[in-house]
Amino acid sequence: MISAGHNPPLKAVPKNKPKSGSEHLMKRVSRACLHCRQRKSRCDLDSSGNPGTPPCQRCIRDHRECVLGSSNRGGRRVRKNKINNITPGTKSSPPKTVRLDPAPSSSHSVHNQFPATTYPGPDLYVRSDPPATDAVLMDDDDSVSTADGAISSVPRNPSDAWQDLTGIAKRGAEDSSTGNLRDHYPPESAGHPSINAFQNGSTNGYQPNSGIKAYRLVQNGNLDPQTVWQLVSRYAENFHPYLPLVPRKYFERSSLDRFASTEKHLLTAVLTIASKDLVERPDIHEYCSKYMHELISGIAAGADCDVEAVEALLLLAEWEPQGLRPRIERVGRGEEDRAAWMHVGLALRSGYFLGLDRTSFRGDPAGDAEGDARKRLAWTSCYISDRLISVRIGRAFWSRGPGPMTGLVSQDFPSLQPINEGDEDYAKVFQAMLDLTQLYGNVHDVLYSGMRTSSQMMLMGDYVKYADDFRAAILRWNRIWGNLPCSTHVKVTLQMSYEYLRLYTNAFAFQAAISQALVSKPKNDAHSQREHLRAAFSNVASMQDARFIYESVDAAKAYLNILVNYVDPEKHLHFMPLRFYLYSIYSAVFLYKARSFGVMAPNEEMMVRELVTRTTEQLKRASAGPDDVGCRYARLLELLWKPKTAPVTSPQGTQVSSDLTLHSSMPTHTSESGYMHFSPANDFSWLDLEAVGDYVSGDQITDAGIMGYNSFQNAAVYTAGQDRSQPWQVPSWSVDATNNLLF
User: Fold this and answer.
1) Which of 189, 234, 235, 417 is deepest in the core (most CB within 10 A)?
2) Looking at the whole model, is its pTM more than 0.85?
3) What angle do CA 742, 647, 586 make, to 5 degrees?
4) How far apart are CA 69 and CA 46, in angstroms?
């Protein structure tokens, strides 16, 4: 028998001495009832005929209820007085005992709540009622081995072992902190405020620690609950349809407290995005941005976070509020792309650490289906965001993606499916975007995988079969998803993504045609190269890659046509994700470079120029102010496309034009139409907005950048396994300082 206190010494029995009947009945057992345990006496559980089961002989004799106590073996024992562990209003656990030391301030309240036993003695023992009572009674012997519970399997790596140890430490800390807190706060009957009142904020002088009133921005007085709800409603109406990551349950007023308590990263991201265009109240966006910046810094520093933090980072990457950047340039130079790249990368790292990638494969249906579906949606959104930002800035992917064998469809995203008749089927839209993103990734992997691979492919002509296959796949996607029934402002985003993918695919073949044309021309000055290219592209129809060149120009014009003719700038474009703004900039820059190579006839060039002018007007109308993203990039296009007059040298040594002040290092040549010439070997890429900004502002690529390119050429002229004494010919087409294709 194991008693709650000290075990009485057992008398040694000689081996040869026969055991009496009483000794046989009173043999040592490993379990005892609660009554015998508190008496520190032997417990005879064999009297009922079932060895080891109650009732025992003493409880039968005393007419008591016999309750079998739990085992003390292997557990973590905490010998403390637990008078304050009795909290009204909570459900009780299975029948257990708690030892309560007699105290004048607490005996009255305890007697009123629980029937006392009749056992006389200096200590008072009470027995809990069945689980229907409102008391939680704790026992010293209730805990199972903490180590056994926390370490359920062999650790596979140091991280698993660390998490096991962390679980043990957390349990111990919670037990000790809970006991200490309750020891410091006696019941209300003793004249002290209760712990429940302290936690709920009902006591004067204490700040609430749950709900919307405990949210940082509300607690500090920066926002009030009504303003928070208005911003959440504004986000749900205008921004949510383009990336439906926020669970729709949080768009109900009754869920605001829960939203603020459990998902502070996501709520702050929603508030930051929804307030970014409030011109009359810029202070709101400033408060939200500062708090969001603090939360992002915490995530980067390794603070605990959940899937809602990943969702918050993905939302920020799609809209990139200005308040998160320290300085705003007057002309857009691609700062938003850099910020989005960092936010998506942080979201991916956090998602991998949280194990979101495991939800790509359909798991055990007996688990948390809602939680798994949310994680799957977040991880798939990570994959989409990673592919799209990499395509925009020409960098490698960070994420492996949901997996080639997953085959995710709209049914895998139940939170996006319509509930009522007439609701938007975001699940179908999401599946369409997922399929299109897979094509984006394949085009990037095959055609834009690296400078060495791309250059060899351009020279050898291998890109033709890949480009044709991709074109067929893109057209097939359009046949399947082009007529998807959904809202017009949502459908137009799919169509714009489709047109930009056409441009991205066919532009590679356009670049290959430029490279092949430059191979046959000895490297000379920029003027002769420019004239050679214009002569080569003067008759596009006779070129081998004519179909790619025509389709790339058509895709760029189609994108801008959709933007100016089918998108309301104030109702829809104003709230669209950032990428649709930048796709229009890429398209306009691409058309500028295509015009410079002589691809367009004069009448087509005039139409394109008018189209770009309408695009800049559309971007301005969609902006909330002069520093908004639309105005900043509209200004960039104006500087790029506006005809430049002949420069005049000023007394200070700078060349001044009527439209733009240029440094003395700027080229002075102008074409017949008044456009400024550029060097096909050393100027900007249509995918590098920072280089475009340098071009229009006069900050050309420095000699150091050109020297870096020359050293890159010298290092890349040898193929694997080729004799270094026989270098193969490298074309004089260029890369910029970041190794982007210069087209």
Assistant:
1) 235
2) no
3) 30
4) 15
